[in-house]
């Protein structure tokens, strides 16, 4: 199996349906919501590409934004979290 890629995905999307669809897809990939429009998690490199393709395929509005930040292993160790972090999620299997 490929080594995991640690991602933070943050978005500002006006349309409720598109925003909800994106949140559901990120949870499908095992990412956890750490703020209302911020998700964090570890995915495979292939899943990262798929997530980027899915986001790119959304009908985003002119003012919508999605930021995808990949953290290296060293950066993950150096991050500072103040407060409770939601438990890590596993992939959703249907």
Automatic annotation (TrEMBL):
Pfam families registered for this protein in UniProt: CRISPR_Cas2 (PF09827)
Binding residues annotated for Mg(2+), in chain numbering: 12
One example GO MF annotation: RNA endonuclease activity
Cofactor section: Mg(2+)
Organism: Methermicoccus shengliensis
GO biological process: defense response to virus; maintenance of CRISPR repeat elements
InterPro entries the record matches: CRISPR_associated_Cas2, Virulence_VapD/CRISPR_Cas2
Protein name, as recorded: CRISPR-associated endoribonuclease Cas2
CDD domains: Cas2_I_II_III
Keyword Magnesium on entry: yes
Transmembrane residue ranges: none
Subunit and interaction comment: Homodimer, forms a heterotetramer with a Cas1 homodimer.
């Amino acid at each position: 199996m490929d080594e995991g890629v640690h991602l933070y995905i943050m978005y500002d999307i006006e349309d409720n349906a598109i925003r909800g669809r994106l949140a559901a897809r990120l949870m499908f990939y095992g990412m956890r919501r750490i703020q209302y429009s911020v998700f964090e998690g570890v995915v495979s490199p292939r899943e990262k590409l798929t997530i980027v393709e899915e986001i790119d395929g959304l009908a985003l509005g002119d003012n919508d934004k999605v930021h995808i930040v990949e953290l290296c292993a060293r950066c993950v160790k150096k991050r500072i979290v103040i407060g409770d972090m939601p438990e890590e999620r596993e992939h959703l299997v249907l």
